[in-house]
Amino acid sequence: MSQLPSETRTLFFEFNDPQNPLPMRVGPPLSRFTLAYEMYGRMNADRSNVVLLYHAMTGSQHAAGLNTSVEGLDGRWTDELHEGWWDGFIGPGKALDTDKFCVVCANYLGSCYGSTGPASINPETGARWGPSFPVLRMCDVVESQMKLLDHLGVQKLHAVVGASLGGFLALLTATRHPDRVRIVLPIGTGTETTIHQRLLNFEQVTAIEADPHFQGGDYYDAPRPDVGLALARRIAHKTFISPDALRVRAREEVVSQRPPHGWYEMNHPVESYMLHQGQKFVRRFDANSYLRILDAWQWFDLVAEAGAKDVRDLFRPCRDQDFLVFSIDCDHTFERKEQEKLVRLLKQAEVPVMWITVHSDKGHDSFLLEPRLFTPHIQAVLNRRDDDA
User: Fold this and answer.
1) 372, HSE (Cβ side, Cα atoms, 13 Å)
2) 331 labelled catalytic
3) Is 124 exposed, middle or buried (0-12, 13-18, 19+ CB in 10 A)?
4) Which residues are CB-neighbours of 294 under 8 A, at least 6 positions away?
């Protein structure tokens, strides 16, 4: 049995095609961009064993192994990112078995870990894109990664996998390109942006934009809007983990009595824990990227972005695919009823689907923390189609 190399390396796909630019759902096409990506395992001769993995909102291309350095990120590649975010799922004998499959994970267009985003240099001006970076929609992220697959010579994916916001992208890949996908694995996700998510996202947007250092997004040569971005992260973070898990994690935090911003003295471990989460996050992420991705989430429209006529038409092209849908019973970010709706639509369209509910006390973050709850089901579906191929 082979092993993943202890040190993995980020690769860069440079797209530069003025004659055939990337169409953007809002605004003019993008003729030039970079995607940072990593690969685990080897492609077979006909490149039919590739699994495309979409990360969550603030994730990176580094899904497995150890990667201690990615150049040109202005210090954002912190210790927190060195270990792959899905390391427990990717490797020989794991859920995404690299003895059988080649896993590709790319950083979103618009993000800040090596892919072109607001913090990148605009080649037309020689300055950072900043607030002039194009408006993003989820389908733009998908189509940029289809350009990467074309570059790699991958015509049809063995599977597309995505959790949380990455699940939106997995569903879009399946519906926009049904002939390029065999298996679809959406984990802890849904088919739409819920009212609860809209409110939380709106709170995060206003937290960042209200920071006096935000300056309309033009802050790269000045103090960053760290207070606003940290607050946005705390607003989101409380939905990622269950109250019981939050209570356990917070016990391990040292309570500081120092007022974080003014007169208020923290008096409970959970406050210290949440303050630390925000402070840690601002060292590794860009506020403009955060806003661009939140905006794409707020405007997400699976039917329209898939090019379907209506919700009944949405999954009809997917009848030759196999879906494995995961729910997490204590998920407060994408509640189980969101996956129930997805499964109902798939069944109405006569798409083969298996629905698994994972029982966990970790909340939404279970998909990151508990591979043993997901791995047997993932292996069964991936390996069955591998044997049938």
Assistant:
1) 1
2) yes
3) exposed
4) 201, 204, 205
**Residue 130 DSSP code:** G
pLDDT value at position 248? Answer: 81
Tell me which residue has tokens 């955060």.
290
Which residue in this structure is represented by tokens 């356990």? Answer: 248
- Number of C-beta neighbours around residue 14 at 10 A: 10
Lowest mean pLDDT, pick from 39-53, 69-83, 251-265, 315-329: 251-265
If one compares 260 and 86, the residue with the highest pLDDT of the two is: 86
- Any idea of the CA torsion for 303, 306, 312, 313, to the nearest 10 degrees? 150
**Residue 123 above 80 pLDDT?**
yes
* CA atoms of 188 and 363, how far apart (whole Å): 10
pLDDT value of residue 310: 95
Answer whether 123's CB lies under 8 Å from 114's CB: no
What does the radius of gyration of the chain's CA atoms come to, in whole angstroms?
20
CB 247 within 8 A of CB 241: no
Q: What is the model's pLDDT at position 250?
A: 80
Tokens of 13: 């796909």
The helix (H) or strand (E) run that includes residue 234 is helix 226-240
Distance CA 189, CA 170 (A): 10
| Lowest mean per-residue pLDDT among 42-46, 150-154, 262-266 | 262-266
- pTM (two decimals): 0.95
Q: Which of 140, 322, 331, 386 is labelled catalytic? A: 331
80 is written with which tokens?
A: 């927190």
* Selected catalytic residue, list 60, 177, 364, 386: 364
CB atoms within 10 A of CB 373: 17
Q: How far apart are CA 56 and CA 83, in angstroms?
A: 16
Does residue 84 have a pLDDT over 90?
A: yes
**364 flagged as catalytic:** yes
Tokens of 76: 């954002």
211 is catalytic: no
Catalytic entry in 111, 164, 272, 289: 164
